[in-house]
Structures are given as C-alpha cells and as structure tokens.
Amino acid sequence: MLSTLRRSRRTLWHIALPSLWVTASAISLNDNLVEITSVTGDSMSPTLSPDQDTTGRSDYIAWNKWDASGHVQRGDIVFFGLPNRPEDTGVKRVIGVEGDVVVLDARRRPKSGNGNANGNTNPTAGSHDVPESKSWDAWSGRAKVPEGHVWVEGDNWRKSKDSNWYGPISRSLILGKAMAVVLPTEKFGAKPWEGFASGTTVVRERVDTRTDLEVLEAMGTAT
Amino acid sequence: MLRSSLTRLRINRDASILLRLVQRSRLASSKTPPKPNAFDFHQKRTSETIVPPASSQWTLSSFVRPLPDLGRIPSNVAAYLFCACIAFHIFSEYGFVLEGAYGISMLPTIASDGDWLWISKYYRRGRDLKVGDVVSFRHPIRPGEYAVKRIIGMPGDFVLRDTPEKGHMMMQVPNGHCWLVGDNLTYSRDSRMFGMLPLALITGKVLGPVRWSGWTIPYLEKLEHGLQPAVLDDGDVE
C-alpha cells in the first residue's frame, strides 16, 4: 500500500508533471512562434493540398507566427481568422496590400457555383447569384484596399471564397505567414506557392500621406 | 607534527563532509531518497580522491570542491524562470490578464489617465459575448494596437450608423461581426469610424478596472452591461 502510494507519487513527479510542462511549452511555442496546421479545402489547389479530392490527404504547413500582422507582402500565403466565422481560420494568398486598387477578375464573381471550397462539386447545380454577388458588383470592377487591410484570394478561382466574397480583410486578422510545407514528407521544406502568377491585376498606387483615419477624423470634427 | 596531522584530519573530515553533501544532493534528484548518513569523523581517508557518485553522473559540481552546490544553482534558476514564463503565457493567453489602458473614449467607465483592466480570455473571438459587454480587441486599422470599447450590436442586430443627433441610417450587423461604440460618444473612435468589427479580432472581455480602496487593497469594480428592461408606459391607457 505504501509502496503503491510512493510509486504513484513518483509517477506524478517524473511522468505527469514533465508531460504537463512539455504540453504547455508546445502550446506557448504554437501561439508565439511556429504552428503547424493542415490545409483543407480546394481553394488553394493545386498549390496546396492538390490531392485532397482524390486521396483525402491534405498538406501540412508550418506557419511563422512571430509578428504575423507585420509587414505582409503581395504573394504571401497567410493564415487568418475568418471574418464571417470567427471560430474558423482560412488560408489564402495576399494579392493586394493597403492602397492598392485590385482590378476584379470576372471569373471570381461570387456565384452559387464557385466558392464551394470543401469539395461540393455538383456539376449539375445551376449557377445563380448569391447575396455576395451584389456587393461584388458594387465595387464596379475596381476595389481599393483601405488602410490596414489586405485583399486575399485563393489560387483556385473556381472554388475559392475569398475577398471577392467577404471584402478586404483587416491585417490584424492575420495569424501567421507560411514558412514551408511539413507533410507530405516528399514535399518537406518546399514552398510551392512561390512564383505563382495570379491572374488578378493590381494597380499599385501611392497611398495618400493622410491616413484614412485622419481623413475621417477631419471629416468628423468638421460636422 | 600533531597539529599537522590534526589539520590533515580536519581537511579529510571536511572533504568527506563536502563529498557526502555532493552525493546526497545528487541522490536526492534520483529516484530513492538517501538514507540518513552519520558523519563518520573517525574514518580516515588516505587520499583526497573523488569517489564517483552513485548514479555515475559526472557533473561540474563533482569537480568544484569548495562550494559543490554552486554549479547547480544557475541551471535550477533558469529552469524555474522558463517554467514561470510558460505558466504566465498559458494563464494570460487562455485565462485572465491585467492590461493597462488609457484614453478618454471610455469615460466615465475607464479612467482617462490609466486604469488596470482585468480581462477574461474566455470570451476571445466573440464566444458568449452579449450586447453591453466591454471588450478588448485588436485594432482593425492599426495592426499591433489594441483598443477597448463596448458592444452595441451583435450579429443580426440593427444599429445606428452615426451618433444619434447626426444621422438616422441604420445597418444590420452581419454574421461574424459586431458594432462597437465607446462610452464617451463625442471623443471615441469606434465602429462609427471603422465600421463593423470581425469578432475574430476580439481578444477578451473586460470584467472591470482594478481600483484601490485605501491605497492598499485592490478590488475589482465589475462593469455592468448598462441595458435596462423596457418599461411599458401605459399612463395613457385607461
């Protein structure tokens, strides 16, 4: 009886407690430095998770979480909290940064046919307008990315719910930038997203020296 | 002659005491606790050889003779410091955190010259939040900055887009967003300025500022949500 007690206390000190610390350290590492997640859905095919529909395997990416909302460049793959579903995250490519004017691609106009990013490929489904089509039309083909925001798009224009659906996202939503592929092991360390030529053209204009916030404040005090 | 032999005896005795201290501290870190060992002052060690420790683990401390424990103190301190940092991060990321806030936009709820706010991280990303809660969030326009405002509308609610006297256009809060307004309407930059805020930007709910009673005892001044039940005024009905 005493030896069982002593043994269980020894187990606590030598196995359970170190496991707890290792888990806590892993969580801290995940929050601040590096996190590895899988990329599900077709919105980034064939750059990421190209075999998902056929084999069900998705790619695992290592995300750099240090100062993730810092300097974000066009072409970066980012991991962000979704603006329409706060508990979920999305993986897309940054197409335009603040101040850019994105010339909207007509193929990416929100319809019921595209945007089904999780494998719902019903070819007989009719393609009609959705509520987001109206807000896409309101841009009149040119979307100016406001201060502190970025325009993100998925590489697969047929099946991507991105900024064409929910507009430019705040840079503060970005949780991580892609570092390298971790799994599958054949692609370990690869960066398949580099060198991708997005079909969307972006007009890079110089940002007005007055920030949008200052402009709005000036308008606010004037009234 | 006698003195030198006594000195030698004392040196040997000291050496054996120190050696036993080293062995005991090393045994204490291994599985079984050491048996209490009476110092045997009469045991004469012929030479000052170092006896290998029981766990056959040579460490720096086995060579440092005057103060054998000094070699272990820095590594212990480093380990404890690391564990403290990890524990603090876990607690402040998923539990509660004390954050300083200053500014006039939330007067009179939060002091303008700086208040320490007790924030619960359970409510991050909009979980279980209701109209009237004061929340801290990552600023949508200035990445890296945080702000504190009150929720006026949750998804589905209709909110006034401008200050009440200055406009009457109303908007419906879409899915996954909220409408925030500061308590000091005149001097607050909030959703009237930057629009709907994605709930994913919310980092926690402010339970209240920590104030001091009598300069020594801190207490939490719980914030109310400010909503009042609708009162039916049926004075005209007879």
TrEMBL record, chain A:
Keywords for the protein's UniProt record, in alphabetical order: Hydrolase, Membrane, Mitochondrion, Mitochondrion inner membrane, Protease, Signal, Transmembrane, Transmembrane helix
GO molecular function list: serine-type endopeptidase activity
GO biological process terms held by the UniProt record: protein processing involved in protein targeting to mitochondrion; signal peptide processing
Biased composition, class Low complexity, residue ranges: 113-126
Main location: mitochondrion
Membrane topology note: Single-pass membrane protein
Top-level taxon in the UniProt lineage: Eukaryota
An annotated GO cellular component: mitochondrial inner membrane peptidase complex
InterPro entries in UniProt: IMP2, LexA/Signal_pep-like_sf, Pept_S26A_signal_pept_1, Peptidase_S26
Subcellular location per the Swiss-Prot or TrEMBL entry: Mitochondrion inner membrane
Residues of the Peptidase S26 domain: 22-182
Enzyme class: hydrolase
Signal peptide residues on this chain, from the entry's feature table: 1-26
Catalytic residues (UniProt): S43, K92
Documented EC number(s): 3.4.21.-
Region (Disordered) location: 106-135
NCBIfam families associated with the record: sigpep_I_bact (TIGR02227)
PANTHER family: MITOCHONDRIAL INNER MEMBRANE PROTEASE SUBUNIT 2
Family named by the database record: Belongs to the peptidase S26 family. IMP2 subfamily.
The protein, known as: Mitochondrial inner membrane protease subunit
Organism in which the protein naturally occurs: Oleoguttula mirabilis
Automatic annotation (TrEMBL), chain B:
UniProt feature coiled coil, ranges: none
Entry GO MF terms: serine-type endopeptidase activity
Subcellular location: Mitochondrion inner membrane
InterPro entries reported in the protein's UniProt record: LexA/Signal_pep-like_sf, Mito_IMP1_subunit, Pept_S26A_signal_pept_1, Peptidase_S26
Signal peptide, first to last residue: none
Keyword tags: Hydrolase, Membrane, Mitochondrion, Mitochondrion inner membrane
Domain of life, per lineage: Eukaryota
Domain Peptidase S26 per the UniProt entry, residue ranges: 81-159, 171-207
SUPFAM superfamilies assigned: LexA/Signal peptidase
One GO term (biological process): signal peptide processing
GO cellular component terms attached to this protein's record: mitochondrial inner membrane peptidase complex
Gene3D superfamilies according to UniProt: Umud Fragment, subunit A
UniProt keyword Hydrolase present: yes
Pfam families, per the entry: Peptidase_S26
Active site positions, chain numbering: S105, K149
Similarity comment: Belongs to the peptidase S26 family. IMP1 subfamily.
Protein name: Peptidase S26 domain-containing protein
Species this protein is from: Meristemomyces frigidus
